[in-house]
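Batch manifest, entry 17 of 40.
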Amino acid sequence: MKIKSITLKLCLLLVTFIIVVSIIIGTWSIKDTNNIVQIEIGKMNNEILEEVADNISILLSNIEEIGNNIVEDNKLVSILSIKKEDVLNNTQEAIDADKYVEGLLNEQVWRYGKYNMKPELYVISENGFSFGTYSKNKYTMKSIKNEVWYNEIVKANGNTVLISTFEDEDGIGPYKCIFRMGRLIKDLITDETLGVLIMDVSEKMLYDRYNRIIKDGRSIYIIDKEGNIISGRDKRLIGKNYYKELDYGDYLKTEEWYSIFKRDNTDYMKLIDTLDRYEWSIIEEIPLHIVRQPIKQITQKFLLTLALVIIVSSVVVYKISVWVTKPVINIKNTIEKVMKGNLKVKVEIDRNDEIGDLEESFNNMVKWLDDSIEEIKEKEKQKRIAELSFLQAQINPHFLYNTLSGVRFLVSMNKNEEAEEMLYKFSKLLRSILPKASELISLEDEIEMIKTYTDLQKIRYPDSFVVNIDIDNEIKHTMVPALILQPIVENAIFYSMEGENRKGEIKIKGYIENQNILIEISDNGKGMSSSQIDKVFNNKESINRVGLINVHERIQLNYGKEYGIEVSSKEGIGTKVIFKLPK
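Output type: structure tokens
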């Protein structure tokens, strides 16, 4: 559908521009905001992960400190330095040794219990002693000699060795999965190996450091340098390799703080922090829809704000469009009125800009046009008046001759009264048709003149026609141009008597219809064809040489193009002429 309204066009153009620009800016802003928020969320989660790593480092450091406190205990070194034979021969010494070492181990456990960690501590000596906080007979030198982890401890030569989490067959409850730290106990003077310290720590102590943040589908895994899982929410994965079990899928994006990858049709944000000292890594996996939840909320608020901006902008644009185009529309509406003939209209000038200048110029143009037309109409009217005055001054010689001949005939027949009446009517008619084309007379006076004329014609043509006049009293005093009915009545008399030998009948009727005055003059003559109507309409051979066309033009000059006369006729029936005048 073609839009014609300039207001609507301007409004749609500006609103479309605002929407397109808003969408472009909005799309760019949302995308940029998403990236910024995603990076910030990545940083924030990375900081949380660093905090977890620090807590785990503190845990491991505390366990190491427990080990240091134990292996550096002089009395423990002395006990472990006793020869096996001497221990067997001195039962009391063995009892005292057992009591001291177990007290030492329990003291360390309880000292660090406030940090929510209770490792199981074991001391296995070369001289046959075996001590433990849980069970002193859980490990013996013989039972551990062939273990891989023991050989790693031996190779470390007194340094602490961190052994990845594994499932302890003898463990129960939270100690089913444990990780281990161990070191050799040596005589610091002789560097002799006296035994080994084993510290078994529940994996739960690691899990407790991060379980508060693993919600909404998040996962955290602690892995060693080979990728073996040391701790995680799913205990079934402990001991398995992270890279083989979980690190599959496509990496979609890698940033400084995080990476994005897809696994099993789900996008994840992956963050990694390392415990360099212990060669462990902490991996956090966050479903991307969780990360994007605040982004989604920001986007929704942004889109809502954008929608409100567009709505408000549309209203403002519409108001501006109306303000800009209203004067143009007013000019257009005024032009339409001018086209319909109303040259008195004006555009209201309410602006001081170029549009105001246009309004003023338009008003000046219409005024000039109105003045010019009025001047032309006045000149034309004066021309018609002069022409009519000239014509009215020339009485048709045939009419004069015939009238005077009729008077002479009546005198010769000694019909003096009839002759006198005819002369009276004739003189009265002459006074009526003396030049007065510029005058307006009442319809009643115009009818009186018609009666005088028809009476005169009846004297000439006795019993040839009758005239019936029916004029509403309401319109009798209406002012009309002088001598507008006579030419039509003259034609009606002539055509009603022409042809068949019958009495002519002329009807003159005046009434109001649709706020207009209508005057009908009809006869019962033989009627006319279209060509005859045109001939009569332009005939100037009336008594005062004023034809129908002159009457029609006089009416229009006085009242406008919508008024005048209309002729209709049917052959064999008669002719009707209708005058249309304003009320």
